[in-house]
Amino acid sequence: MSDFDFSVITQNWAFLAEGLRYTLQVTVTAMIGGILIGTVLALMRLSSIAPLQWFAAGYVNVFRSVPLVQVILAFYLIIPLVLQMITGKSTPIGAANSAYFTFTIFEAAYYSEIMRSGIQSIPKGQIAAGYALGFTYGQTMRHVVLPQAFRNMLPVLLTQTIILFQDVSLVYAIGATDFFGAADKITQRDLRPVEMYTTVAVVYFVICFTLSRLVKRLQSRIAIIR
Amino acid sequence: MNYHWDWMFFFQETDDGLKYYDWILSGLGWTTFVSLASLAVALILGSALGVMRTTPKRWLVGLGDAYVDLFRNVPLIVQLFMWFFVVPELVPEKLGLWMKQDLPYFVIAIVGLGLYTAARIAEQVKAGINSLSRGQRFAGLALGFTEWQTYRYVRLPMAYRIVLPALTSEAMNIFKNSAVTYAVGILELYFQYKQIIEKTSQVLEITIVVTMAYFILAFVMNRILAFVEARTRVPGLIVGQKGGK
Fold it and tell me: How many domains is chain A partitioned into structurally?
């Protein structure tokens, strides 16, 4: 413990920061994409058209019962196969790029469940009121239901995003250089596991702890609606 | 599509004289073992922490809160690496050497996964206890129970039944999270999945099979706990995910 060597961290800080930037990029991409796809899935799940319901239920259940690491690896290997099928030529996309896609698709399943409970928390009368005003289905959803559902579920959506931020560390499985991956690569070279892994743990802790406190405050601020 | 489907490869021999389906089965076994053992660790520790966080003692509450904050805000894979590579360096030298050389890998993985999940279970247990009316504790105390006895005989039996649905989803999560222990060399299902892909590149077949294996594990766990839930249901309560997250 006495020989905790901070210079390993300061020397490699740029590389670590690069990794952290990648982690953040994947998080933000997957959050935006995931919420958009998730909302569509939630609407499908709650629609009256049976095949749409089945598709959405199947999608959500499959992704929610499979470990994320497995999906990361499977997509990394399967996406090039699919692309090859479509374009006819082999197009390797690389570990770093496949993660954007994987996380968006995977998180959509989780965001969809959150959006579904958000939509279901809106009283039926509001939808009826929308129709009574002459709104179409799309208008009712867009102007009446979804804004409220989104607002009610904002803390939960953000909490899920914090989990997502932590889960990006699992791209270790395909060797992409996220924050943790960067630290791991430096460790392989410099053999200073104590400094590197502790730094990663502390940085993750500080970021996630701060964010979750902010979400808690937000939660108590927007809870006044009811 | 020019992918070469070959379902029969599962029956091919591997280098170690086994067949590929043997690898899958051994992976399934390890996943089940690691998951159930971690679940046991998590239930015991998580319950203790959950109870601590509802006691009137400020320092116990603080300790429990700190644990939950710490273990929920660091990714699982980082925690596992900490247990494997950092902790042995920080403890006294002899103990560290023993951890690195003699302690089986899976024990550290089980402890790591168990402590991680304990934080989540502590949240559920706390929510369950807090969902009971304070009158239940007062009634216990009025009958001459000690604080501990009100937990043992009055509050915990109710709290567990109330949060059982939430505990069920944690129990299913632990099977998925056990896949992360591959990173520190546990030969569980995902590890074998990765191995088989490297050996055979039959990506689609093996993905379908392993996905179904995880499905079945989750489903079995879900059914077992649904059975427990039905047997322990408290009459007169609409038991839902009350007070969950």
Answer: 1
